[in-house]
Amino acid sequence: MTHTHAEHKDIYLFGFPIAHSGAPSLHNLVFESIGSPCTYKLWSTSAVTQAVLDELRSASSGGAAVTMPLKAEIMKYLDEISPEGYATGACNTVVPVEVNGHRKLVGTNTDFLGVRNSLLAALGTQHPGVSVGTTATYAPGQASGMVIGGGATTRSAVHALYTLGMNPIFLANRDAAEVADTIAHFDSRSDPANPNRLRLIHLTSVEQVEGHLGPNATDRLPGIAMVVGAIPAIAPKSFEERMVYTIATHIFTLPFQPGNATGDLPIPSPRIFLDMAYKPRLTPLLKIAAALGWQDVGGVQAMIEQGLAQQRMWKMGSSSVAVASDESILDAETCRKARVFVENMTDIVPTEPEVDRAKTSV
């Protein structure tokens, strides 16, 4: 069910701490631009309380955004979880969907769309005459991907690369236990009978990189077409942290060797590195990738894409990826203003202590 401009709805961001979030400014700019009276607000809470559930079920709710620490907890309270929410094990968006006159709350994940759509946008700038539509993919065996990290953002990035057809996907992270958890998570959700079942490979040394991707590898895998960074932009200190940077740098220097298959998407040239960290905007990994000839994409682009995906879902009352990625739903001028706003947005510094409503009667 599409929200009309006559309907006022409240859309809250649930999580804690969130007083520093720029999301209200972005989303309210979009609402104003499209002539919608909807309002995006903050609801600071460290738990899914009855008050949160009452708000979500109220007639005045137009949906919600969800951030840490509630992305997994919220899922058990919703009527349905989208395939994307199930695959990533996280819900950052709640969409009210009308089905046969009944309203249900669907939890989904637009974080992966932030990754996926920003990578596709970068690819589109390289190949303006080639369709890089949201259903296009690489063929099985054509290209690999890589994610640097091991937390919740890593799962969204892995799902994004896999839905683009990249397989296997290599992981590099300082914490081996996090990587093991990520691999176990996807193994538990994949079909063993699927010939293109997601394969995740934990890289721990340069020698291992060479063994899989080097020119002298005996059973060389398809080259890495895109890399996503999902670690904080801080200088590495421990051996494990330094090894992550060493592996990433080595990957950035390897010549690309594609597989034999050919899919719908062109291989990026230069290849693309997206760093989800955006403080500072030019992160150490972005500097390294750019210096070694990769196209660098800042994390604010993923933030923009996931925000626009949420807006499309709320506007149309649909949690589908097709709707979330349909550029015709929001006019070009609104999208342009949203991009300019986020790209120039400065940090928000809270002036008062943030109150956790889960621990008060507020």
CATH fold-level assignment of the largest domain? Rossmann fold
Widest sheet: strand ordering: 2-1-3-5-6-4
Question: What is the structural class?
Answer: alpha/beta
Q: Could you say which overall geometry the principal axes of the C-alpha atoms support?
A: globular
**Uncertain regions spanning at least 5 consecutive residues:** none
CATH architecture of the largest domain: 3-Layer(aba) Sandwich
Per CATH, the class of the largest domain reads: Alpha Beta
Total number of distinct structural domains? 2
Order of H and E elements: EHEHEEHEEHEHEHEHEHEHEHHH
- The percentage of residues in β strands lies in 15-25%
Beta strands, count: 12
Instruction: Tally the helices.
Output: 12
Overall pLDDT metric: 94
CATH superfamily of the largest domain: NAD(P)-binding Rossmann-like Domain
Protein name: Aminoacid dehydrogenase-like protein
GO molecular function: shikimate 3-dehydrogenase (NADP+) activity
Pfam families: Shikimate_dh_N (PF08501)
Domain Shikimate dehydrogenase substrate binding N-terminal: 13-94
Helices and strands, with pairings:
Blueprint: E1 10-15, H1 23-33, E2 39-44, H2 50-57, E3 61-66, E4 80-81, H3 83-88, E5 93-99, E6 102-108, H4 111-126, E7 144-148, H5 152-163, E8 169-172, H6 176-189, E9 200-202, H7 206-213, E10 224-229, H8 239-253, E11 272-275, H9 284-291, E12 295-297, H10 299-316, H11 321-324, H12 332-343
Parallel strand pairs: 1-2, 1-3, 4-6, 7-8, 7-10, 8-9, 10-11, 11-12
Antiparallel strand pairs: 3-5, 5-6
GO molecular function: shikimate 3-dehydrogenase (NADP+) activity
Pfam families: Shikimate_dh_N
Protein name: Aminoacid dehydrogenase-like protein
